[in-house]
Amino acid sequence: FNNRRTSVSNLQLIDVRMPSETELGVVPEAKLLPLPQLITQLDALRKDHPVVVYCESGVRSSIAASALRSEGFVDVSDVIGGYGALKGVN
Predict the structure, then answer these.
(1) Quick check: helix, strand or coil at residue 24?
(2) What is the pTM of this model?
């Protein structure tokens, strides 16, 4: 993840966890868009820029990645292991 974060320009990092979860910490530069609000907030994202989504465990981010692809986003990845795998990423 760190490799992609530093080597890919215009990377959009999306945290799809709920506010009660993000209070415990987020990855710097992550945009907070809880999964239930993601589709209604697509105008906050660029379809032509790569997207990486994460949640707590990887289940919701998988759903989010699929939804983004169905909306025309081409370069979409989700983080296996979710936020737990990213803790301490700076």
Answers:
(1) coil
(2) 0.88
